[in-house]
Design a protein that fits this description.
Distance between the termini of chain A: 29 Å
Mean pLDDT of chain A: 89
Number of strands of chain A: 0
Order of helices and strands of chain A: HHHHHHHH
Number of domains of chain B: 1
Number of helices of chain A: 8
Shape of chain B: globular
Helix content of chain A: over 70%
Radius of gyration of chain A: 21 Å
Largest interface: A-B, 101 and 101 residues
Oligomer: heterodimer
Strand content of chain B: under 5%
Largest sheet of chain B: none
Helix content of chain B: over 70%
Low-confidence stretches of chain A: none
Mean pLDDT of chain B: 91
Low-confidence stretches of chain B: none
Structural class of chain A: mainly alpha
Shape of chain A: globular
Radius of gyration of chain B: 19 Å
Distance between the termini of chain B: 16 Å
Largest sheet of chain A: none
Order of helices and strands of chain B: HHHHHHHHH
Chain lengths: ~190, ~170
């Protein structure tokens, strides 16, 4: 997929440049683009490391398991098929909290473990059950306490206060997740025996 | 809004360090190993970001990006979206670095504190690379039939994009 998108963007740019007579601008953009990408990465690097470092302190202090405990009653209602399966629920809760804290590196392996466990106890192998669909939908939405990457990116472009948009991000992601869960719940009944 | 924003970062740092001391975490050692992960994550995405930011810069310079934006204008207007953010919103579920490159271009052209810049930032911050997550999670569990996952996930992305535009209009005017 990305092969076609990336290649396509390059080819379209060059063809378009030939027709609109902007070949010089495009050749300049190719050189400047690569340079500005590196500038951006360097600007962001410090802030990213500061944040992942701080979050690791919280992580080692056990903040993930504390939050997971708080969230588990709610998550048991979303995943009724696995509510009694402690190990699976634990993986699900940890994944959701790690995502919430923006610990992407920790969240993915936990999520994969949760998926493997769900598939193990799945009567219909190879076919996603309702909980698995719900779990993936939960992971495609992004509920994050502080969306670090966006804040850092805005800061590197000189935003006066990059965290201003936090309430908007929370509202949008929660609304998106709500719609996602609702849609999944609505569609699952119809396909129950499919 | 301004004042609260200024307090978030110091407050978070304060809470984390106090929490670390209470829990007897070797705070600086923990910081170092976490920072290393940040370094690794940035290093991992460097190649994709360089490739895609270059591609998007070329797309912009050739005039093709404006052409695409203009052709999306009718769709954007019917949704109440500024046309500039539509290519990014479409790219968001497909490719993380692709949408970052487009967001980068928007922030460069309009500024991070413009209405368009804020809307694009909110869309980017409030959703995930949906197709990537679907591929990774189902792929690793060996699940072939994913039933209603895609409609639910994409509708969620669409809903959060609509809310992103609405909430920026509501909170910041524009």
């Amino acid at each position: 997929m990305m092969n076609y998108i990336w290649g396509g963007i390059m080819l379209i740019s060059i063809v378009c440049a030939v027709f609109t007579g902007r070949v010089e601008a495009v050749s300049q953009a190719a050189l400047d683009g690569a340079k500005s990408a590196v500038d951006l990465l360097i600007t962001m690097l410090g802030m990213m490391c500061l944040w992942t470092g701080l979050m690791n302190i919280a992580e080692q202090g056990g903040v993930t398991s504390m939050l997971a405990k708080i969230l588990s009653p709610l998550l048991k209602r979303i995943f009724p098929e696995y509510a009694k399966d402690c190990k699976t629920m634990h993986a699900i809760c940890s994944n959701v909290t790690a995502n919430f804290l923006g610990l992407g590196n920790a969240a993915t392996p936990l999520g994969l473990e949760a998926m493997r466990r769900m598939e193990e106890n799945n009567p219909n192998k190879g076919v996603a059950n309702n909980s698995m669909v719900m779990f993936v939908v939960l992971n495609t939405a992004s509920i994050q306490l502080i969306p670090t990457f966006i804040s850092v990116l805005r800061k590197s472009y000189g935003s006066a206060s990059p965290l201003d948009i936090l309430p908007c991000i929370w509202l949008s992601s929660i609304f998106g997740l709500f719609i996602g869960i609702l849609t999944a719940k609505l569609l699952e009944g119809r396909e129950k025996h499919g | 809004m301004d004042k609260i924003g200024n307090y978030i970062i110091p407050a978070v740092i304060f809470i984390i360090i106090i929490f670390g001391f209470i829990k007897k975490v070797p705070v600086f050692d923990a910081f170092l190993s976490g920072a290393k992960q940040g370094l690794k994550a940035t290093y991992m995405m460097a190649g994709a970001l360089i490739g895609l930011i270059t591609a998007v810069s070329m797309l912009k310079a050739s005039g093709a990006l404006d052409l695409i934006t203009n052709s999306l204008m009718p769709v954007a207007q019917s949704l109440g979206f500024p046309a500039e953010i539509l290519p990014m919103a479409i790219m968001r579920p497909i490719s993380g670095s692709g949408s970052t490159a487009l967001l980068n271009q928007i922030l460069k052209d309009h500024g991070p504190d413009s209405t368009v810049g804020m809307m694009a930032s909110v869309i980017s911050g409030s959703s995930e690379t949906t197709f990537y997550a679907i591929a990774v999670y189902y792929g690793s569990a060996g699940v072939k039939k994913i039933r209603h996952t895609i409609p639910a996930a994409l509708l969620a992305d669409f809903a959060s994009a609509v809310m992103a535009v609405l909430s920026v209009k509501l909170f910041f005017g524009g």
